[in-house]
Structures are given as structure tokens and as C-alpha cells.
Write the C-alpha cells for this entry.
Amino acid sequence: MIANDNKTKIEVKNLNLYYGVNQALFDITANLYENKITALIGPSGCGKSTFLRCINRMNDLIPIVKIDGQIIIDTKNIYDKDVDEVSVRKKIGMVFQQPNPFPKSIYDNVAYAPLKHGIVRKGKDCDALVEYSLIKSGLWNEVKDKLNQPGTSLSGGQQQRLCIARTIAIKPEVILMDEPTSALDPISTEKIEALMLELKQDYTIITVTHNMQQAARVADYTAFFHLGKLIEYDETETIFVNPHNKKTEDYITGRFG
Amino acid sequence: MIRRKKQKINNNPFYDPNLKARHTSAKRFKKFTLTSLIFSIAFLGFFLFDIIGKGIPAFHVAYIQVDVTYNEKSLDDTRFAVDKKYRDVVSRAWLRDIPLLVKENPNFMNTTLTTWVLADDQVDQYLKGHNHKLKENEIAFVDELNAQGLIERKFNTIFFTNGDSKIPEYAGLFSAIVGSILTLIITMVVAFPIGVMTAIYLEEFAGDNKFTRFIEININNLAAIPAILFGLLGLAIFINLFGIPRSSPLVGGLTLALMTLPIIIVSSRAALRAVPDSIRQAGYGLGLNKIQVTKDHVLPLAFPGILTGSILGLAHAMGETAPLIIIGMIAFIPDAPSTVTQAATVMPAQLFTWAGMPEGMYIEKTAAGIMVLLTILISLNTIAIYLRKKFEVKW
């Protein structure tokens, strides 16, 4: 599909997803690359969020969902029987549309999951990890003096960065972002975007967005979904400047969607 | 163009001929609703006024200053402890306790002490201006004592320290209060964990299928079943099948637990459902498992709601009488139970017993008992509100 020498992080092969009898994803095949930002775009209900949630098996939480096909990460199909979905989610972090900090202190928000996963023990190590994660997410200077205040006391943009810090803290390899800025104001959005560009040095980022400019600004690759099908997937520049598919062009130029 | 006269005159562009009638009907509607409110407040006010008016006198009771002689004769027949003319105006029950008093204070033996002795209930009722059965000469005697300042009305500690008694002035709420506490402890210990765990299973683990829907409908129906049926169930299962002693706080608590369970389950489920799903998603997204998400993130948020529901369920159980009648908790219990398997009664059941007594003093004590019960219930509800406010997580 795309000829380049990027390293493939996630290999999706013939992925079909059904909600009960309704098929939501049709035969998705794509290679997602390491240390790149891949944006998933498309009109509402096109399956881009559903696809995103397949990558960390969040869809397993919905009982009626049935999935066939393969998603291969580090040579292992995450839908193999011997793979535990919980361990998949530890390796593949997720940031949601609405900032959803736990109703705990800022410190505990970041520290909770690493402590439970046994990544660190309580004490110095944990403090260091919290600091590292908050620095990484660009929140440290704003919260270093109030780590014991509830995470919910922060502004929306700060909360979202706290959620990113929380995700970084479990040391994932991939970060999935489901419309991470759609509930934020432009200034917070800018901060998150800058953060994404910084984070891609260390992580593979897949983001869903409704904001075409955002995709154009931050994404290295863009995938266009329509009615559950992956219509076009290419370098962002190609998608926006020279799309091969008529539907992609129509959507990009705002003729539908 | 044909126009009505009014419209012709009126050049207000916002004029609407129907509006006046609509406003009138809205006002009428408001008056109806307000009238209903006034009615309900009036009922409540009347009820409270009546209860308090009847109950307040019970908190004071008449004592008569009498010379009490403690000797062999009076220990043998306690009526001889006081002078003959006093025998009909002081409490027989109080006199009966003289041997006990002497046992506790051996130095009283062979002395005559001027003591405030509890008056007979008829004297008390006469002094309060209620119906009484005193004879002419007794009335004259009481009046004479009163004039000499030998009759005093003191705070009725007996009401709070004694158990039930067939002698009105000696009857108290103590054994019923203890019975209520023991019963409710059993109820909470059984119903709270089972109810909350059930709610967690149904909300967090069970999928939406026919079986869970069937259970859900049944739980909701259970919350609306007449309480007396729970009494029959308790009788059949706990007493007849398991052989738990009847009238005991254990069987009462278990029966009330059955009754409270659906309330706790329904309110706990509502509290769990009110926790935003984004919190669960956040937890699962971090690779946490079910127990970590539920115990550390969902439950703390749902806890205020669960607590409130449980306390209200407890208050409901506390005021319940019907099922306890069936399992024999409406017994004559002069001594407070010390274990959960001894015979006991509970406050509402005690009030029910007293309400059936003819003596004026029991009527008074019934009203006073209702006041005590209401105070406890209102306190419980206040605690529920306080705890909800305290543990509520600001969002």
C-alpha cells in the first residue's frame, strides 16, 4: 500500500467487527507505523472509533461485539486465545474524548495504575515516575505544588494532559487517542497537539479526530474511513493534497460529512 | 377582512386574544397545587401537634414525699412500707422494688427514710387533668398533699430505663429500644453486604440478558410487597425450618433484612449506575481489571448513594411492625434482652401494645414513644444526608 522504510508497529489484517448482526467494520487491512502519528478521520459513525478501540481490545467490554481478523503487535496477534486483554491495554494506553480523571488526587491519578501493575513500589520510585509522567505530559510546572488536590479541580485541558500523564505512567508502547481535543478550547488543543508531536518520539500514536486541520497539522499518516470501510490510507500530505479516492476528496473538501 | 372589534382597537403587535384565558388557567392550576401543599402540611402539622400535645406530659411524672419504713415486715409485704393512707396513692410497682433497693443498700434496713416515691398512675393522671379513677376521699387527700408541697413532678427517667410493665406508671421503652438496636444490627449486618454485593454483580458483572432482567423485575417487585408477607416468610423459614427462637432479635433482624434487601439493592444499583462510564473506561484503558476498577474507582463514587439508600432502608426497617407481629416480637418484655436469641420487642411493636391499653398513662406513653421513634428516624435521615454530602465527590 505505502512504500517506505518505516517500521510497522501494528499490523491489521482482514479485521471485521460485528455489533450483534450489524457489521461495523469491513475487512480492514493496514500497517500502522512506529513513532508516527496516524490520524483516523471520517464522518460520524464510520467506524473509526470502533477501529481504534479494537487495537486495545476495549470492544471486548461490549458483550455483543464479535471480531474476526488479526491485529498483530510485536509479532503477536492480540486476539489470540492466549493473550489477556488486560495486558494488551497495559501495553496500549488510551486517552478519551472527555477528560476522565479518577476522583482522586493528581498524584494518585498518575500513580494508581503503575502501582497496581507493579511497575513501581510506593515511595521514591513512584514519586519519580509521577514526576516523569507529568513532565512528559507538560503538566508538571502547573501542578507540582498541588499534587494532593483532586484531579477534577484542574481545567479541562489540564485534565486531559493529566489523563495523558496517567497513560504514560504505565509505560505503554502505543497511545490511542479518541478525539482527545474535541472537548477542549483552541489553546488547550494547541497544547495537546504540541504534546502529541513530542510524544511520538517515544510512542506510536493513533488518534481519531473530527478536526481536519488537526489531522493535517499533527499526523504523519491519515486513514479515511467511510461506512465501516477503510477507504484510503496514506501519508497525510497525499491524503490532503492528492487523494486517490473520490470519496476522500469529497470529505476532505467538505462536500459531505 | 373581518376582524373582531377588540382586535381592531388594539394595535399592540404582541396582543393575543387567548392569552388572558391561558394565564387564568395557569393561575388556577397553581392554586390547586398550592392547596394540595397546604393540605399536606396541615395534616402533618395536626399530626405532630397532636402527638406532641399528648406525648409531652409523659416526660414528667408525679412523685409523692412519703416516709418509707424498711424492716422485716415491709420486706415481707411491701405495702407495709408506707403508712396506710398512702397505700392507694403511691405506685405499687415502686413499692415492690423495695427488697431490691434494700439489697443494694443494706444500711437502709430498720430505718425510716423520707423519700420521693413514684405516685400511682391515677394520681398522676388526676394531677395532669386527664381522666382518672380516684375516689372522692383520695382526691381530697391528693389535693391536701399537693397543697403541702409534698407532690412534685419530676422528669420521667423510668420511661427510658424500664422495660414494659403491666403497671402503667412503671412501663418504659428501654427493653424495646435495646430490642430495636439488636434487631437493626442483625438487619444491617445481613442486608448491607448482601445487598451491595448483589447490586455490584448486577450492575458491573452481569450482562443484560433474560435471566438478569427477570431478577431485576423480581427485586423491584419485592420492594413493593406488603411487609406482613415477609413476616410470614420469616415465620416459615427462620422459625419453622431453621428453628431460630421466636420473638428474638435474630429472627426479627433476619426478617427485616429480607425486607430491606430489595431497597438496598435498588438504591445501590442506582448509585452505581450514576457513576459515569468514563471512569470505568479510564480504568480499563489503563489495563486495570474488574476488581480494581470497581473497588477503587466506581465504589468510592457510588458510596454516598449506597450509604444513603442503606440508611433509609434501615429507617424503614426500624419503623416496621407488621412482619414482627407474625414472628412474635409483640410480646410482653419487661427485661431488656442481652443476646440476640432472647425474646425481645421493638419500639413500634411496643407502641402498638401500649396503644391497645385502656389506661390514660399508656396513651400518653404511646405518644411519647412515637416522639422518641420519630426523633430517631429523623436523626437517621439527617445522618444519611450528612454522609452523602460529606463523601460526595465534587465533579
